[in-house]
Every structure is written in C-alpha cells, then in structure tokens.
Amino acid sequence: MTSAAEQQPQQHQPQQPRPQQPQQQLRAQLETLTTEAFRPELAEIDRLDTVEIARVMNAEDAGVPAAVAAQLPRIAAAIDGIAARMAGGGRLVYAGAGTAGRLGVLDASECPPTFNARPDRVVGLIAGGETAVVSSVEGAEDSAELAAEDLDRIGIGPDDAVVGVSASGRTPYAVGAVEHARRRGALTVGLSCNAGSALAAAADHGVEVVVGPELLTGSTRLKAGTAQKLVLNMISTITMIRLGKTFGNLMVDVRASNEKLRARTRRIVSLATGAPDERIEGALAATGWEAKNAILTILGGVDAPTAEKLLGEANGHLRAALEAAGYDDKKP
After folding, report:
1. Pairing of strands 205-208, 187-192
2. Is the per-residue pLDDT at 6 higher than 50?
3. What CA–CA distance (Å, rounded) separates 316 from 243?
4. What angle do CA 133, 101, 81 make, to 5 degrees?
5. Catalytic site residue 141?
6. Do 170 and 35 meet the contact criterion of CB atoms below 8 Å apart?
7. How far from each other are the two terminal CA atoms of the chain, in whole angstroms?
8. 8 Å CB contact between 60 and 242
9. What HEC string does the chain produce?
10. Higher local confidence (pLDDT), 325 or 21
11. How many whole angstroms from its chain centre is CA 83?
C-alpha cells in the first residue's frame, strides 16, 4: 500500500551543474593565462635543426626588454618606495615559488658581495625553504598560510618592503605573502607576467611584464624568468644606488673578501681617484680595505677616522661626504 505522498507525480527537478573539482578549476584557470598559452605554430619545433631552434629562442628573448620597458614607470615607483623603506632601516624581501622564488633568492644573495649589504637587509623567501632552491617541494607553492608563517618568522613589519614574484600572478604563496605583508603594514610589490593578475591587484605596486606565450608551453623559466630577472636586477641595483652604495657607476661598497674582489677594489679606487698605486695601497690599508672610505681619504684629503665619521653623518653617501670634506669635483 502506498502513501498519498508516494502517489503524487514526481516533480522534475532541474539538474544542478556539478561543482568543478580542484584540478578542473585549476586547469580552467591556467587556460586563461598568457604564460600558459599553447602555440600551434611551434608544435613541430622538435623537428628543426638545433641552430634553427636556437634562432627561434633568440628571437623570442629579444622581445623581453620591450615588455619590461612598458612597465618602467611602475617599476621606478616601486623602487622609490623600497628605497625609502630601506633608508629608514627596513628590509627588502622577495617571496616566490619555483623559478620565481629561486630568482628572488639569487638576487638577494648577490647583494652582500656586490654592495656590502648585510645578509638580513635583502632576503629571499622561497616556498618550501632552502631545499626548494635545488629541488621541488611538493605543495609548498599552494600555501598562502606558509607564506604568512615565513614572513612572521622574520618579523615582517611596517619598515619593510615585500616583493611577491610569480609568472602566472596567481601562485598562492606569492599572493599570500603580499596580502599578509600588506596587513602587517609593509610596502608591497607584485611582479607577474600576466595582465590583470591577482598578485598585482593585491599589492601597493603591481608590475605586470607581459612577455606572451612561452616557446615550450607553460615553461615560465624562459621568457617570464628572463623578464623577472631583469626587473629584480633593476629593483636591487637602483635601490642600492639610491642608498649610496655606488659612486657614479662604481661599486664602492664592494666587499674585498677574496683576491679577485681585492683586485677589483684597487681598480675602483684607482678609477675614482686617479691616484698612484702606492697611495691607493696606503689608503686601503688605513681604511680596512673599504673602497668608499679610501676614496674619501684621497679625494677629500682626510684621515681614515675622519672619513669614517663623515660617511656616517652622510648615511653612507660618498658624494655628500666629499662635499662635507670640502672636495669640489668641478675643479680641475
């Protein structure tokens, strides 16, 4: 015997679309990204002679500087903000995963020997930690929480600047780093290679260097990686110029930590002063092989302790210290 409810005709229920699975969602998202686009005209590149493949790659790379040039005003604005934070005692922190993270670590690691910057002044964070520099750490790039933990571990705060780096502009680790840093009051920069990226939208300064689809579909260590390296070069180098780490185009804060760098230090002092070798050797010995101090003793006509004092008062800017010492570079 059936109930009245069971005797009622069944109402047709419209079929609801099945929610996409995470992998389906990610695939759909990737298919919208320029950096992931497939190029059918290159589908048989493996049939070409090696030199032809090299020509194609070289032609692809030639367009990267133009893509960077289109973003120069945004890059410059970001650098001015970073330099202001660092001049006040803050740090520059790069955060990324995979190739982008490795490029940040590389750029940070070059600042101590090139500019005599303390290792804790420019920091590279990569999803998965040091292990991820040389091998993949599965799942690390998908964690915004991991980025927040890494930033909190180094005590990120309002004095600092954080640059999130991601070719796609959607990597959770990079986006999460920028969002968390911004909540902590840090200046934030989002560097990506896709227009309209979540990373750029999350940052105070969005820099989107759109280099187009890669030679190998989705291999963003190619043009996107080159573009990121060029921008990171600009960020660290120009920031250090603004902080007085150079004198003209000379690396006067270079650390003379080995024979090659000691030879470079001698040459830098020679180029800056035109002094004879004997005087250069004496100035370097007196100043503990600090090129900037040695130049000041020679051009400013001051002793080593006075050079140290003047540079301290000038926040390390050699031109300002030379002016304080009475040196006039306009005089013959």
Report:
1. parallel
2. no
3. 8
4. 140
5. yes
6. no
7. 115
8. no
9. CCCHHHHCCCCCCCCCCCCCCHHHHHHHHHCCCHHHCCCHHHCCHHHCCHHHHHHHHHHHHHCHHHHHHCCHHHHHHHHHHHHHHHHCCCCEEEEECHHHHHHHHHHHHHHHHHHCCCCCCEEEEECCCCHHHHCCCCCHHHCHHHHHHHHHHCCCCCCCEEEEECCCCCCHHHHHHHHHHHHCCCEEEEEECCCCCHHHHHCCEEEECCCCCCCCCCCCCCHHHHHHHHHHHHHHHHHHHHCCCCECCECCCCCCCCHHHHHHHHHHHHHHHCCCHHHHHHHHHHCCCCHHHHHHHHHHCCCHHHHHHHHHHCCCCHHHHHHHCCCCCCCC
10. 325
11. 13
Query: What are 49's strand-pairing partners?
Result: none
- pLDDT of 4 reads 45
Interval 84-97: pLDDT, tens? 999 999 999 999 99
Which member of 141, 179, 208, 214 is catalytic? Answer: 141
CA angle 199, 162, 72 (to 5 degrees): 70
Q: Give strand pairing partners of 250.
A: 247
* Residues facing residue 247 across a β-bridge: 250
Active-site annotation holder among 6, 44, 60, 110: 110
b (16+ CB within 10 A) / e for 97-117? bbbbbbbbbebbebbbebbbb
Say which residue the tokens 């979540």 belong to. Answer: 198
**Residue 14 pLDDT greater than 50, yes or no:** no
Say yes or no to pLDDT of 320 above 80.
yes
